[in-house]
Amino acid sequence: MTVFISCRRLRMKTKGILALAAASMILISTVAVGSNMGFKIAIPLTAGWANYVSLPYFNSYTNAASLFNDIPNCAAVKRWDNSTGSYQAWNGVRGNDFPVVEGEGYIINVSTNSTWIVVGSHDPAFQQPLTAGWANIVSIPYNITAATASDLFNQVPNCAAVKRWDNASGSYQAWNGVRGINFNITPGEALIINVSTASTWQPAHY
Question: Whole-prediction pTM value?
Answer without folding.
Answer: 0.83
